[in-house]
Every structure is written in C-alpha cells, then in structure tokens.
Write a structure and sequence with these properties.
heterotrimer, A mainly alpha (160), B alpha+beta (632), C mainly alpha (372), A: 160 residues, two-stranded antiparallel ribbon, 8 helices, 2 strands, 45% helix, elongated, B: 632 residues, alpha+beta, 14 helices, 22 strands, VioB/RebD_dom (chain C), Iminophenyl-pyruvate dimer synthase domain-containing protein (chain C), Ferritin-like (chain C)
Chain lengths: 160, 632, 372
C-alpha cells in the first residue's frame, strides 16, 4: 500500500484475495458475510503468522491456484480456510500438520461463532439457506429451486 | 390456608404433576382451568420459556457442530438426559453407550429425550398424524404385540381436542381418502394443510397411481403421496369450529411475536420463530391455579400403605453444576407422572409401585427408522421447509402386517442431513478432509470447481425415512441399577433393547420397496449400510445388512391394558394398583402404529383429564365420606 | 446532501366527498410506506448477532407498519378506491420531508444510531393537540401540524361521509378485494376486512394507537383489539432503545421508562451515507449491481402489494419471501465498504438507496410474469 494514499484499503485485503481463490465466491459476497476480520484472526490464531506467511508464499508460487499447492502444511491450511468459509467451522487439521506446526492448542473442530454458521457459503452453492436462519418465507418450499423444472401438475394438488 | 401446626415444608395441592412436557402441560392446563390447585414439578431448568432463553438456545444450536435434537439445550448434570451422540458404533458392528443411559441390549436404543420445561416436544418435528383404527388391535387382527383397551372411536373426540390444543394444520378429506381415517362429517383441521414441498410434488408426479409389489408374490399396492398433518402454524381455516375460525398462537416469552412457518428448516432441533407447537405455548395459558417449580427432580412417589399415594419426594437444587440439593416433599390428592416413558418407568421402579403385573418398564418401544437416500436428476430444493411435508401411507396397514412390521414413509426435505451429515460431510469430503485426522488427506477441490461440485451434488439430495411399528415385547425394558447413580444420587435407567424378527422383516421389505422407489423415480440411489463409528444401529438380517436409527418416540413402559393382571395402567392411564396415581404419556401405549405418537399422546392425556377431574370431584363431594372399604 | 423530497399533501380540510376521501387514503398509504425504508435500513445496518433487543423492537414496528399499510388499503378498497403502490411516484426519494407536520423534519436512510432514533421518534410522536380543520381551535388557513391530526381528519371524513351518503353507500367496495387474516397475520395484530363503519374506525384506531399509544398512555390497544399482549406503542418502543430502558406496566409518557435495562451497543452498526445514491457506486461494480438488484426486488415487492391490494389478496403470501430476499441483499450491502474512496475513507459502508424507477417496475413485472 502506498504510504501517501489517504484512502485505507478495505479490511484484510490480502486475506480476502486468497479467500476468493479458495472459495470461488467474489469479494462482495465474502465481505457480505461480515466475517472477514473474524476469519482472518481465527486463521492467524490457529496456525500462527509464520505458517500463514509460508502459505501465502506457496500460493503465490503456485500462480495463485490452490490446486497447485504441493506442501502438505500449506494445503491443509487452504483446506481449513475454505472449510471455515463454507461452514463457519474451523476443522481438525491433519495430525501430521498439527504436529508440524507445533500447535499448543487441541486439534479439534469448532464453530467460530453462531453467526459464522448462518453465513456459511455452502448453502449458497445450491441456492439454499442455513437451517435455522435466513428463512425464505411461508410456502416457498413448494416452488422449484433455481434450475429445476416445474413439477408436472396432477389432480388434487395444493391450491394454496 | 389452614392455621395450626401444619408442616410448612410440605405444601398440599389437589394435584402434583411430575414433568412439564407435553402431557404434563396439558394435564395442568385442563385441571387448572377447572380450578384445581396444581403443582407441576420439573426436573430441568425453565430458561427456555423466556425470550433470552430461547435466543440462547438458538445460538447454542447454531454453534453446535452436529445439529442433533438436543443441540440447543444445555446439559444439566442435576437432571441428566440422553443424547443421540452418546452412542458409538464399533468397527465390526455392535455399539458402545456413554452418557445417561446404561445399555445392555443386543441393539442400541437410539433415541434421546429432554429434561427441561417444555420437555422433549421442544425438539419434535411437529408432525401430528392420527393413528390408524387398525393400530389399536394388532394382536387380535394380526397376531403380534398388544392391544389397546380402547378403539379409535373412543379416542376420536379427543383427537379433535388435541388438534385444537396443538393447532394442527391438515387436510381431513385427504386423510380420509388416502388413509381411511374416520372423521366426523364436515370436520376440518384448525388450519389449512402445510404446503407440500417441491420435492413432494416431483415425487408425486412420478409415483402417484403407480402399482408396486414389495415382493414378487405380494399383492399390489398403489402409491400415493399424501400431505402430513402438522402442529405448525399455517393458514388459519376460517371454517373451523363452525365458522368461528382459529387464531394461531405466537411465540412464548415475548409479546406479539411468532407467525406462520417461514421455512427455517430447523423444526428439529428448535423452531426459531416458534411456529411449531411446543408445550410452552400451553403453559403460557395456564391458570393462576397452576404452580410450576423447576429444578425439582422427583425421586420417589410416597404411599400411604393402603394403595393410595400421598405425594412425591423431590430433590431441589439451585445450581445445576453443583451436587448440592435439598430433599422436599409435596402432598396432593392426585399424583400424575408425566415425565417421559423412560422417566415414568424409572420413578415407578424406584418407588416400588404399580408393579403387581410385573410389567413396569417392560414393552419399551420406539419407531425404528430406516433411512435411504439418493440424488434426483435435477435440483430437488433440499433443506427447505419442514423436515417432511408428505409421505407414502400405503404400507401402514393391511394383511402384510401379519408377516412384517408396517411402516410409514416420510419424504425427507432436508437432503442427506440425517443419513450422511450433509452438507458438512460433503464439504469435508470434497476438500479431501477424512474423518480420521491420522489418515492422509485427498488433494481436494477449491474455488469455482468446489463451489460448482457442491451445488450440483447437495442440490439434488433427498431421502426417505421409513418408520416402523415396533411390537411390544416384554424383554425390551427399562430397569434401574443402584450401582449407577446420577449427580443427585438417583439411580440411572438401564435399557435393554432389541428389534423383533417381525420388525426386521419389515425393515427388509421396506428396503426392497425403497429400491423400487428409486428406480421409479429415476434417481441415483446412494444408500449403503456399513458398520462404523456413526452406525451404532448396524445389524445383519438374512442376507442383508441394515442400519436403523431411533425416532425419539419412547413408548410402552407403563403399558395400558384391560386387565390389572398384565398391564400397569387402566384405560384412563390410572395405575391399577393405586387409585390416585396416574402415569400418562406414550409410556401407556400398548402399540404405537406407524404414526408419530405425540398427537395420540395428547388425545389420550386429554381424555384422562376428564377422569382426573371426576376423581377429584368425588374426593371433594361431602356426601362421599369414604368409609374404609378394604380396597387394596 | 440533496434537497429533501417533499410529498404531496391533500388539501387542509375534512374530506367532503368520496373522491376526497380516496385521495386522503392514498396519502395515508404513501405516508405509512414512507417510514418503512428508514426502519429497514437501521435494522439491517446492525452488525451480525449484535443489538438483538433493538433489532427485535424495530422489526416489530416494521411489521406493524406493513399491517397499517394493508389496513389503509382495505379501507381504500372498501370506499370504492384503488390503491396505487407499484408506481415510482409512490416511493419517495430520500431524504424526504415528513408530511403533515409543522417542523420540516428530514427523514433519511440512516444506520442504527442516535440520529436515526431521533427521526423515528419524530415520525411516531403522539399528537396531543391536533383537532381536525374547521374545529374552532384551528384557524382556517393553518396547514397540517401532525400525522395524528391528519388521521383525526380522515376519521372525521369517514364519519361525515357515512352519515351523508349512508353507511352502505359509502362502503360500496367489493368485499372480495379485502385482505383478511388468512392472507396476512403476524406479530402485533392481524389484518381484518373493512366492510362497514365499525371496521373502518377500528382500522384507523389500530393505525394510530399502535403508533402513538392509546389515550395518552405508553401502550397500544392490541389487548383490546386483538386479544394480544399489549406492548408499548411505536413511539415508546423507540424511546426504550434511546433511553436503553424498557417501559414497565405502570409507566406513563411523562414519567418515562422505569423497567429493566436494555443493552444497546451504539457502535455496533455499519456507518452508512444517509444520502446514498446508486450513482455514487461505480458502474459495473458488485456494489452497484447489488444496489440495482435491490431496487428491482423492492419494485417486485410493491408489484405484489399492488396486486394484493387491488383484487388478489392471496398473492400477499409472496410479500414475505420478497421481504426476506431484501433483507439478505440489504445486509450484504451494509457489510461491504463504500466503493467510493472518499466515503470509504470516512468509514462508510454501502447501502440500498430505495431509488425505484419505472425501469425497475418494468423488470419486476417481467420477472413476475415469468414466474406465473
């Protein structure tokens, strides 16, 4: 960032850029969850700044394509950040990666916050909503989801 | 209040109700409305009837890794309850049980319950079908299980009363035509039926009218997708109650909130907008004559020695995390146990009561559930609306019952969440994350490919849930073991559970039906049963292997009958051995049919309330000065 | 900031014929709607999971405003009129001047905070004076002084015309056009059909008393009208947020709230530009697309309401899903930083602008036609 630029960039630009590559969702959608800062901080807290740095370097070396990551630690970090975005859950790391990172915390999965669950991206992949939040309204379940044909009508179907 | 040397520690009531769940709340409502002084003792906490308590439960559920039925509700060491996660399958079959229940049966009892105000019905699905008239005499008609001392017709008016109290949405004409349920002429449910899901319509379009044989030599059955009645706010029926209509009940704990179902797809474990009926809605209308005391774990029913009961002993605690508690008693003319089938049996056993027949705790039943799952050839709209809005009802009765357990087929609107933990399991799998962290992980998909793959896969998921009638067997039972006690020193329940061959044959038939359904639907069948951690209910039968789950429908443990020789309660759910002790709830059911049991339990309870009222009235009638009659 | 928009007000007099009354009712409909975008903006600007009590309060008010709109539309249909909703003239641009009031208070689309609250309190402020025009205490050429006075005038007009024309003649609308409880019910009262003088007066009572309170009290009349738990009227519900304290059962408007504390985290909202316009978002940007999409979905909502209010009440069911779609779009916008560098530098976030044009209505109609 240019030190003379008076306009601060949006929050965590680097993390968002990487997350776009990992998730396949655009920046607007990711920021639209309101969870960029929380996910950034969770990642740093879980694997440490040094590992995040190596992961970013590896990703850059792979031309920005997470599929090209060869180092297993960086690859597992890629899996974890993606898992976080899709489900709001920081997953268990692979046992060897957990050891390699020398983490001093238990290697257990946890939901980052109640809102993280409700902002999970997985629901958007099939035009759904997280159960228990963002309900779409009475009777909407009767409509065809996007991309589905209208069901053939038969006698005695729902009039309402 | 009486003056004089009364014992202030032992307040007297007309009725003590043990348990503030569905049955207990209805009893307190009915008797309180008639002016009887009712004390309701609830073992758990009562945070859930406040708005902050409700929001906390919702947050807890959102933050839970597994959205199991008890996910929203805080563990309570003072009043422990089981969780479906207590069971673990072993690598080669068999299971291990941790948690509240001790289990020693060949197969695991896979259902949970909840001890808190509102009870297990806080996390029920809200399906409210009636039982089939045939379900009340299975021994006489089909040669298995036990018969009710009542018939459908005896219960019919009470079904209507229960449908009013619970606010049921349904289509009586459809239930009559498709299932053969008798209703009085012109009857309509309080609310119009819940709209069927898109998935229901697709399945109906491909299956309605199709004739199928469950085995090559079996008679043909005609398939029909039928809408299920729900205790869930829908569109009120203006013609209900002779044109008086029905006003849906909103949320509890906050003014003027709550509405019709908005499709949260979270009925289990908790309805965020409280469109679904819970006992808390009934409690909100209790009269001032009803007193609720929570944090009160009843440990014993007290008897007078002449067969009559005096009241109950209970353990009162303040801090659920502390073992500290005080022992208290409450006296009443009538004691009503409404603590859940397992807890009622436990209490009777701990008190040494009502067991002249030797049947207390026996005949434990559930609705064993077989799941099958697959992918539609186009988006199915999963994870929308109530868990199930329609089903196939054609396997619920008929001559085939002689050979195999009957079943109801629920069309599952929530993808593979129950059979496969979707969509979390799908995300992990596609990312290459294996269940065991010591195993090497796959390369994994990222970015647009991951997103597309998930959408294509999860978006087509659907499942069938086959719920079987389990026959009453005396070997399936609840006992208590004084060597294993809970935090307050109360012995924990020991469950011995298995499935009869009758049920296993039903499961095998259902699987054969499922295979045909998937073929007829042109859907990809992904059903597979393998032993392992997440399959405690895996078993072999004949040439096949299956896995069943619990439905949360515990029943039978204080079975009702026509004779005191072989049953625990009489047709009024009154203990044969104790004229002023009732045990109400699903525990009284001699058979459970294939219907989700809550509506029937509510109907049965409302019927019993009339008898309780008469009992109390007789006790208070001055002319009925009771002379010793030498009754047992 | 641009000059606030001024809404057309009907003439300062008691409605003297049917056409006059219909004009007044259309104005009432526009007025009820005017409040909805500012309330929604404040509610959806809250950070995820934060300020739940405040969010709950604003939500309850918004739902009752929707109820009011529907009741006014029912009344308009009942007297033979036709509501006009799906029209760019129906949606004011913001900021707008609150009509029918002496002080020219601007109503803007603000994020949750003290300034938004002040506006809300002004909108819902009880009118303790406000006799209708023609009353000896009101001068001939005085203009409107309050919303309460406007509704009092409407009421006087309904009474007068019912007496002049006869009740049956005044309420000549087709009963099939009435939206009823089967089509819309929710928290805080229910919709009922307006078919005669009594139901017309009841509808007006709900509209005024849910907002300002009944007879100089803190509370509305839901208990009496709907058999529901009474709750503080809108003004006092907003006052609870401002004062961070709930009203208790014995509290009075003069005494203020003495109930339990309400925790309000004033900083837990995304700061928004109260003068936000789509034109401020760079063409082709994701924020621009989302803001445009929002206006289109809002146009669809109004099309649904238009159909529901003018002959097909059952389609009102589609309004709730559309509202929920708007919520998702709105929240997503609010959580994104403003794409304009200067505004972002000021810490501002993107927001929907409620600039609904004929172009949006055309697209919304086309979308609805596709779904048929």
């Amino acid at each position: 960032m240019d030190p003379h630029d008076p306009v601060p960039p949006p929050e965590c630009p680097g993390f968002v850029d990487v997350s776009v590559r990992l998730t396949g969702f655009d920046e607007f959608t990711l920021r639209g969850t309101g969870l960029v800062r929380l996910y950034h901080d969770t990642t740093v807290e879980q694997v440490g700044r040094a590992a995040v740095g190596r992961f970013l370097d590896d990703l850059a070396a792979a031309g920005g394509d997470p599929g090209g990551l060869t180092d297993e630690v960086s690859r597992d970090i890629a899996r974890a950040i993606t898992h976080l975005w899709y489900l709001g859950v920081w997953p268990q790391l692979s046992r060897s990666v957990h050891a390699a990172l020398g983490r001093e915390k238990p290697n257990t999965a946890f939901t980052v916050s109640p809102e993280a669950y409700t902002e999970g991206l997985v629901w958007q992949t099939f035009h759904g909503h997280p159960p228990g939040a963002k309900a779409p309204g009475f009777g909407t379940w009767a409509d065809p989801p996007p991309g589905a044909p209208a069901p053939a009508r038969r006698t005695g179907e729902d009039a309402r | 209040m009486t003056a004089g040397p009364a014992r202030p520690a032992t307040p007297r009531y007309d009725v003590v109700v043990v348990g503030a769940g569905l049955a207990g709340s209805l009893v307190a409502k009915r008797l309180g409305d008639r002016g009887w002084r009712v004390l309701v003792l609830e073992a758990g906490t009562r945070t859930l009837d406040s708005w902050p308590g409700h929001l906390d439960a919702l947050d807890t559920a959102h933050a839970a890794l597994a959205k199991v039925p008890n996910a929203p509700y805080r563990r309570n060491p003072a009043a422990p309850f089981p969780d479906v996660l207590d069971l673990t399958g072993l690598p080669d079959g068999g299971y291990r049980a941790d948690g509240y229940f001790l289990q020693n049966g060949p197969l695991p009892y896979g259902s949970d319950h909840l001890r808190a105000t509102g009870g297990t019905a806080l996390h029920w699905m809200g399906l409210a079908p009636r039982m089939h008239p045939d379900d009340f005499h299975v021994r006489r008609a089909y040669g298995y299980g036990r018969d009710w001392p009542l018939a459908y017709d005896d219960l019919e008016p009470h079904y209507r009363a229960a449908e009013r109290e619970l606010g049921v949405a349904g289509d009586a004409d459809e239930q009559r035509d498709a299932i053969g349920l008798p209703f009085p002429p012109g009857y309509g449910y309080p609310m119009h039926k819940i709209p069927r899901s898109y998935l229901d319509s697709v399945i109906a379009a491909r299956l309605d009218g199709v004739r199928l044989r469950e085995a090559p030599d079996a008679p043909e059955t005609t398939l029909r997708v039928v809408t299920t009645p729900h205790a869930r706010n829908s569109t009120p029926n203006p013609g209900y109650d002779s044109g008086r209509g029905h006003r849906p009940r909103g949320a509890v704990g906050t003014p003027n909130y709550g509405e019709r179902c908005v499709g949260h797809a979270f009925c289990v474990p908790i309805c965020p907008v409280q469109a679904k009926y819970t006992p808390l809605k009934t409690q909100a209308t209790w009269s001032d004559d009803v007193t609720l005391v929570a944090h009160a774990v009843v440990s014993r029913v007290l008897t007078a020695g002449n067969g009559r009961v005096l009241g109950v002993e209970y353990q009162r605690y303040d801090d659920p995390a502390s073992p500290a508690h005080t022992t208290r008693t409450a006296e009443a003319d009538l004691v009503v146990l409404a603590a859940h089938a397992v807890e009622n049996a436990k209490l009777l056993l701990l008190s040494g009561l009502a067991d002249a027949s030797g049947q207390v705790g026996r005949n434990l039943m559930d609705h064993p559930v077989l799941l099958t799952w697959g992918l539609l050839d186009h988006p199915a709209g999963p994870f929308r609306g109530p868990g199930s809005t329609s089903g196939l009802e054609c396997f619920r009765t008929g001559p085939a019952r002689r050979d195999r357990a009957p079943f109801r087929v629920e069309i599952g609107n929530w993808g593979w969440s129950w059979p496969a933990g979707s969509p979390s399991g799908d995300v992990s799998r596609l990312l290459g994350i294996t269940g065991d962290p010591s195993q090497p992980r796959g390369k994994g998909l990222f970015g647009a490919r991951l997103r597309r793959e998930l959408g294509h896969f999860v978006g087509r998921q659907f499942s069938f849930q086959f719920a079987f009638e389990q026959d009453a067997e005396s070997r399936n039972r609840v006992t208590v073991d004084p060597r294993h006690r809970d935090r307050l020193g109360i012995p924990r329940p020991v469950l011995t559970y298995d499935l009869s061959d009758h049920v296993k044959r039903g499961i095998a038939s259902a699987k054969a039906v499922s295979d045909q359904l998937f073929r007829l639907l042109g859907a990809e069948d992904h059903t597979a049963y393998a032993p392992g951690t997440s399959a405690p209910g895996w078993f072999r039968h004949g040439d096949g292997a299956f896995e069943f789950k619990g439905a949360g429908h515990a029943a039978g443990t204080h079975v009702m009958g026509a004779s005191r020789a072989d049953s625990v309660v009489d047709p009024w759910q009154r203990c044969w051995d104790h004229p002023n002790l009732y045990a109400v709830g699903c525990g009284s059911m001699p058979s459970v049919g294939t219907s989700n049991p809550s509506l029937t339990m509510a109907a049965l309870t409302l019927r019993s309330c009339e008898r309780m009222h008469r009992d109390l009235t007789e006790l208070h009638r001055p002319a009925a000065l009771r002379l010793p009659e030498g009754r047992p | 900031m641009t000059e606030p928009a001024v809404l057309a007000e009907p003439p300062f007099r008691v409605p003297r014929d049917r056409a006059d009354l219909q004009l007044f009712l259309q104005a009432a409909l526009t007025l009820e709607h005017l409040t909805i975008p500012p309330y929604l903006t404040a509610m959806y600007s809250l950070r995820p999971g934060r300020n739940r009590p405040a969010s709950h309060i604003i939500r309850s008010v918004v739902l009752e405003e929707m109820l009011h709109m529907t009741l006014v539309a029912n009344l308009l249909s009942a007297v033979g009129g036709e509501a006009l909703v799906a029209d760019s003239r129906f949606v004011s641009s913001y900021p707008a001047v609150l009509p029918f009031s002496k002080e020219k208070v601007p109503v803007a689309l603000r994020h949750f905070g003290p300034e938004a609250l002040e506006t809300f309190l002004y909108i819902e402020r009880p009118a303790y004076v406000a006799e209708p025009p023609g009353h000896p205490s009101v001068g001939e050429d005085d203009g409107w002084t309050s919303v309460g006075q406007f509704y009092a005038t409407l009421r006087a007009g309904v009474l007068r015309l019912s007496a002049e024309l006869g009740e049956r003649e005044l309420f000549c609308g087709d009963p099939a056009r009435q939206v009823g409880p089967a089509d819309f019910y929710d928290s805080g009262g229910e919709v009922f059909a307006v078919t005669d003088l009594a139901s017309a007066l009841k509808a007006l009572r709900v509209v005024t008393e849910q907002g300002e309170g009944a007879d100089g009290t803190v509370f509305d009349s839901d208990e009496e009208l709907f058999g529901e738990t009474r709750q503080p009227a809108h003004y006092f519900r907003f006052d609870e947020i401002r004062r961070e304290r709930a009203y208790g059962p014995y509290d009075t408007p003069a005494g203020g709230p003495s109930g339990p504390d309400i925790a309000v985290a004033w900083q837990d909202a995304y700061p928004l530009d109260p003068g936000a316009k789509v034109a401020h978002y760079p063409p082709g940007s994701a924020v621009r697309r989302a803001a445009d999409r929002f206006n289109e979905v809002y146009a669809r909502l109004l099309c649904v309401l238009q159909a529901a209010f003018t002959g097909t009440p059952a389609v009102l069911r589609a309004a709730v899903p559309t509202m929920l779609e708007l919520r998702a779009l709105s929240e997503r916008l609010h959580r994104n930083p403003h794409p304009d560098p200067a505004r972002r530098a000021a810490g501002l976030h993107a927001s929907p602008t409620y600039e609904v044009t004929e172009r949006h209505f055309e697209r919304a109609r086309a979308e609805l036609a596709l779904r048929e």
